[in-house]
Design goal:
With about 180 residues, this protein is mainly alpha-helical. The protein is built from eight helices and two strands; from the N terminus they run ααβααααααβ. The longest helix is centred in the N-terminal third of the chain and has 24 residues, at about 1-25. The N and C termini lie far apart (about 90 Å). About 25% of the residues are buried. Bound molecules: heme C. Heme C binds near residues 88, 89, 91, 104 and 106. Heme C binds next to α4 and α6. This is Cytochrome c domain-containing protein. Keywords: Heme, Iron, Metal-binding, Signal.
């Protein structure tokens, strides 16, 4: 009787040790894929954050005074920004930028209220230095954030144009946010 309970205790102890290893191997293919995707995402974010964009030289770009309604970004860059927005911003700000349970609207009337008479540089700087909360600036480099801003402007109703909006403070600082004419 005494020997039996010893073996029982030993067997229980062994199974307790073995369980975590067994549990790891019992991850479903979906769980494994999810874990791998999370790891890849974290690595991509780290790599992107580690490779800041060089500002584009002012001599190479349009730095004239414009507004967000002058076709100041390209459709292609808004598309690139959309992919990043969908992954990193949409959960809080909504699929159309009209806000959600986790964050305010960043388009429409709310955007007008907070940002009219500011420059795109101000808006970009806020996004780059504050968003997403707790991991600001980590989802890509400066140009990636400029592309997200292009997509936000598109969601707000601005049409794309022929030339790209780039990471250049003279350019971004001279594009003004005004109400739709
Ligand atoms: C976890 C939720 C969350 C995520 C994800 C998130 N935000 Fe926000 N965002 C907020 C909250 C909350 C505020 C309001 C607080 C503040 O202004 O600091 C805000 C404010 C903003 C504002 C200012 C709005 C205004 O007019 O006051 C901008 C612009 C913005 N976010 C852009 C972004 C972008 C771009 C991303 C993706 C890179 C992003 N946010 C991701 C929660 C989030």
């Amino acid at each position: 009787m005494k020997a039996n309970s010893f073996y029982l205790a030993a067997a229980l102890a062994l199974s307790a040790i073995a369980l975590p290893a067994y549990a790891q191997h019992s991850m479903t293919p979906e769980q494994k894929a999810e874990a791998a995707a999370k790891k890849a995402e974290a690595e991509a974010a780290a790599a992107a954050a580690a490779a800041p964009a060089e500002p584009v030289a002012s001599g190479d770009v349009d730095t004239s005074e414009r507004t967000i309604w002058d076709g100041v970004f390209t459709a292609a860059q808004a598309e690139a920004g959309k992919a990043l927005y969908t992954t990193n911003c949409q959960t809080c700000h909504g699929a159309t930028g009209r806000g959600g349970p986790g964050g305010p609207a960043i388009t429409g009337a709310f955007f007008n209220k907070n940002w009219v008479d500011s420059s795109v540089l101000d808006f970009y700087t806020f996004a780059h230095t504050q968003m997403p909360p707790g991991k600001a600036g980590t989802i890509g480099n400066e140009q990636d954030y400029v592309n997200i801003v292009a997509y936000v402007l598109e969601m707000h109703g601005a049409d794309p144009g022929a030339s790209e909006m780039v990471y250049n403070e003279d350019q971004l600082g001279n594009i003004f946010i005004v109400k739709k004419p």
